[in-house]
Fold these 4 entries.
Entry 1:
Amino acid sequence: CAPDKKEGEGLSKIFNLHFLSVEDALSDGVISRFADFDGYIFLTVFDVLLQGEKMFPKKLSVFFGKNFIITFCKTDFAPIDKVLKSHEGDINFFKKGHAFILYSVLEELVDGFFPVLDNIAESIDRLETEVFSHVKKQTISHLFKLKRKVISFRRVVNPQRDVIFRLSRHENFFVSHDFLIYFGDIYNRLLRVSES
């Protein structure tokens, strides 16, 4: 999942990937992206990692062509790990095709946002209780940390709406029209997350 520049160049030659998409996949950029290249779609999405009061985006770049799906990520990517673990030894899962694999990873990614929202909601509830019982300097500090957490979450989630929307509306030679409804389902879930 974490190719270096040399491996990226090798994959670029084998699968005829545009050097700009490979360069973007290898970069540390934090912008969600959807691009239609000759013979494949390139997209970048983000998971969020909570560590205490801080939130960190985890980037996944995907090259999605007629007969292939290639993922680039710098570290383990929990949604991929969960999909692979839940379908370990399940040949039928992989027979459903690479569009279904991409759908499964994106579904796991978006479903993973709901516990983050729950975490934020619980923090808000605790702060409301503190504020209405008695205001402390520490409470105000928690309030500002929570505000930064919400802003960070929105910065990761909201730009992905466009990526998933475009994927759900993108007819091409390697995703059947009937399958686009699955990506539409992910878009609807992501919309619920971003509006929460």
Note: The first strand starts at residue 33 and ends at 37.
Entry 2:
Amino acid sequence: GSGNSIGVTQFAGGVNELILGETSGSADSTINYITITDSASNTKNYMPSETNSTGSTGTRTLDNSSTVSVVYFNWDSANPKNNNACAIQLEAAINHNNGHGSTITATRTGATVNLSHDLVGSAGNNATLAKTNTANNVATISGANFTGGITGTNQTNTPYIVLTDNEASPTEKKYVPVSQGDAKSTGFSGSIGDVT
């Protein structure tokens, strides 16, 4: 399915909220991250970091001693340190092998990271986005679910084109358009819908 986007807005008031939760013993309310779950239920928590490299993984311990596994994106390595640079690092973390590199593709425009599911059709619509302890003035999420994926089906009364060569024994070929992601590949020979 087609995806959602994550936008980062300019920090204000002198507090860099993205690095809260980095120190040992931080309250749960300061540990912030963005959660993406793909359609195969692979969940990754993307956490900004001042010290850990982009795409590296770690575990955060919460106040109740439970843990959260995270994939870091290092905004501190950016020069200059601004929202566009932070979005570059988030994009890289999502596309990293430790992130959703094989199921979700992140692309960036300015400080906005757009996501699309690599599954074709409506199956990609099952992916979700969420954020934890991240204020709207730090990062916004355009929607909780991926949308727009459509699975095409071959109907009866299937449209097709007939080409007949001009030989002594004419050969007739029927060509049927199929939707992107259809199981029939170019050059398929057989039946599609009601066309053989």
Note: Confidence is low (pLDDT under 50) at residues 11-24.
Entry 3:
Amino acid sequence: SRRRGRDEAGTLGRMTDMRRDVIEPLIAKHRGRIVKLMGDGILAEFASVVGAVRAAAAIQTGLADRNVALPPDKRIEFRCGVNLGDVVIDGDDIHGDGVNIAARLESLARPGGLCISEAVHDQVRDRTGFSFEDLGLREVKNIDRPMRVWQWHPERDLVAGDGGPGAAAPAAGCYTPRTVPTIYSVASSALPAPAT
């Protein structure tokens, strides 16, 4: 991204601090695990779809809280996508449509926001207290059928960093790099990797 090119060491340091101080603790708190880091992206897996959505919202709110204290050119915003689906376990890694759809959802999210699939929305709509906006059916790369997408952003619901009610303000006026860091989350039914 442009930001990384201007201040690579500073950007990487801030991203590492955000991951250590905000992202990793909130993923663990909501019973998730980081599957892998991919450049400025993170793939996480959760046992519960409610936990995945609460973690993503808490992460976005926690990062927005941190950004408020930073000058605009030092702020970093993430996009999150959450899907519920089958994955194939391959050692410590996971693959499959569940992961691919989560990645496509992330690409539709606004910086600082979260997009979820219809399957996720059906499971969490009455269980999280978050307000989601229906973005309708969307065509996405490498997925055979259009999928209904729902969007959440901290401006829709103000939540504290732990996912509960609060008065945290979203970041305003953040500089957004061309490549926004990403978090893909999958609540999954695990399938063993095919034997080779």
Note: Residues 159-180 have pLDDT under 50 and may be disordered.
Entry 4:
Amino acid sequence: RPAIAEPATTASSEGMAILQNKERNSPPTTNRARVGDMDLRGLPPRAPQVFLNRNHLALDRFRQAGMQVIELCAPHGFGKTTQLTEWHREAVLSGEAAIWLSLSGRDDTSRLIQGLTNAALRVGRRDFFSASFAEWIGSSTTPSQALTAWMYEIAQSHQDTLLLLDDVDRLPPESRSEVLDYLLANAPGNLRIALS
């Protein structure tokens, strides 16, 4: 029968000391980590290689109909995110500014507005938000004031803009009522919104 090795108490003690020291010396979690998370949420997912193109859902049809808000409703797994990804691609190819934001249950009002701002910054157009404006948005304590300023910046860009919001159903109720409803009711004429 093979001998069972006794646990090395000195080795494990040394390992614990190294881990504790490493934790003490590691930098604290900062806004940078949260901004990185928001940056990832501002990227549309990779489009599937095979996509069933549905002509009745082409972005051009909605443009020509003058629709400002498009809502995709379907059960889980029916391709809502994939359709939003296709609209994002169509908007970019047509020269329209396309802002993508994946939403989550952690999006309180200030985090949601900061996410919208970071996603707009990601578009990378000179006629969009400046870094100083983004900092101001991040420090604003009044959601309606920050969101009004956000919409004003979009309006002043004079650029047709498509805002794509994925997983709206995950938003906390206060974010839906204070931010999303306000955004939908007061969106400037050059901003179209697609929700799933």
Note: The first strand starts at residue 69 and ends at 71.
